[in-house]
Design goal:
- With 376 residues, this protein is of the alpha/beta class.
- It is built from ten helices and 19 strands.
- The chain has an eight-stranded mixed β-sheet, with helices on both faces. A five-stranded parallel β-sheet has the order 17-16-15-18-19. Strands 1-4-5-12 form a four-stranded antiparallel β-sheet, with helices on one face.
- Helix 2 (73-88) packs across helix 3 (106-114).
- It binds zinc ion.
- The site of zinc ion has 9 residues, from loops.
- Zinc ion (ZN) is lined by residues 6, 8-9, 11, 41, 43-44, 46, 213.
């Protein structure tokens, strides 16, 4: 099925450049043998797949080995603390919290410490069938449709980095609303989409949601936003919208016109399409190639710069327990220092590449960066 109309606002949509002709990547690093063929809406600015992804495909993605939270327990805990601090500032002390897509339950545990009078119910398709349960916290395997009838209503419903993965954001929001207590609040966190960034490259991000797209989807679920804020710096390129059944409509803040956003997205994806060739040229003189960084950005290089990645014979990171499984062996940094003629492919997010490159150069290595081509 090819879509030319936006599923959120029914506006016209235009095709975006492909970052690779044959493959793309899920946010947990797995390669998908399909190009990333997305569209950009000229009405609300939403980004979405040119071919609709069915509910069955979505469930296949998450059912078994979706591993984002589990791949790195330490970052999972750090992320949970940062999100807890952000969310607690936006929600009055609730009694009954529902979190859809709760991962390991780390965020709910943090929130229950902050609000000792509250109970939490968490759902995630990647949890074991009989999820753990202790006192005030219950966790279960499933999607939003699997919330038991007797659970709730909830005065705080949270979905952190979930809505962009859903087949239909409006339907998702309606389902959350149906579990909401009178005067309850829904807190939606998702990647920022007012300018293109890494999130656009993930196949399982079925939607890139601008503020206008979020507000349009909320309105069709009879919800209105009482707040819309960008994440604090330590969390990164994310946004939060607080929805209520009876809130007065906020005025949308100025955003790039959708035509401009389309051009920016095409430019961004075009840069990713050129990256492999550029990195091959930049690394040509290195006798061997080691990647510094073993997380999501390294996985993006494996997916979208595969010819360069095939030259990488080892990965080095400061903390090996944080490295994803990406093929090449993970070696201690001190081993890399002893290699002469070794090029180091900087495989960390663009905004920290300059600092890292300085350190690698000081240590006598040859860093290969690409933040000049892709700055965010
Ligand atoms: Zn739209």
């Amino acid at each position: 099925m090819t879509q030319t109309r936006c599923p959120i606002c029914a506006g016209e949509a235009a095709g975006l450049a492909w970052p690779h002709p044959g493959q793309s990547m899920l946010s947990d690093g797995r390669i998908v043998q399909r190009p990333l063929a997305k569209l950009s809406c000229l009405g609300c600015g939403a980004g979405f797949h040119a071919s609709g992804i069915s509910g069955a495909e979505v469930r296949t993605i998450y059912d078994d080995d979706y591993a984002l939270a589990r791949s790195s327990p330490k970052s999972d805990a750090q992320r949970a603390r940062a999100y807890c601090n952000w969310i607690r500032a936006e929600a009055a002390a609730p009694l009954n919290i529902l979190e859809v897509g709760c991962g390991s339950g780390a965020l709910l545990r943090e929130l229950l410490q902050v609000w000792p009078g509250a109970c939490g119910f968490g759902l995630d398709p990647a949890l074991p069938a009989a999820g753990p349960s202790d006192g005030r916290l219950r966790l279960a395997r499933g999607f939003v449709a699997d919330i038991p009838e007797h659970a709730g209503p909830f005065d705080l419903v949270i979905a952190v980095n979930v809505i962009e993965h859903t087949e239909a954001p409006q339907t998702f929001l309606k389902a959350l609303r149906s579990r909401l207590a009178p005067n309850g609040r829904i807190v939606i966190v998702c990647p920022e989409a007012r300018s293109p960034n890494l999130e656009l490259l993930f196949f399982d991000h079925l939607y890139s949601l601008t503020q206008a797209a979020l507000l349009a989807a909320s309105a069709s679920a009879s919800l209105a936003a009482s707040r819309h804020v960008s994440a604090p710096r330590e969390i990164g390129d994310f946004q939060m919208v607080v929805l209520e059944a009876n809130a007065s409509r906020p005025t949308a803040s100025p955003a790039s016109p959708p035509q401009e956003l389309l051009a920016e997205r095409n430019d961004y994806l075009g840069r990713w399409a050129r990256l492999d060739q550029i990195l091959l040229e930049r690394s040509a003189s290195a006798a061997r190639l080691v990647a510094f960084g073993g997380g999501q950005t390294a996985a993006l290089l494996r997916a979208y710069a595969p010819r360069t990645w095939s030259r990488v014979d080892a990965i080095t990171v400061d903390d090996p327990s944080e490295a994803w499984t990406l093929g090449p062996a993970v070696v201690p940094y001190r081993d890399v220092l002893q290699q002469s003629g070794c090029g180091v492919l900087v495989a960390t997010s663009p905004h920290v590449q300059a600092v890292l490159a300085e350190r690698l150069s000081r240590d006598g290595l040859q860093p290969i960066t690409w933040n000049d081509l892709i700055p965010h």
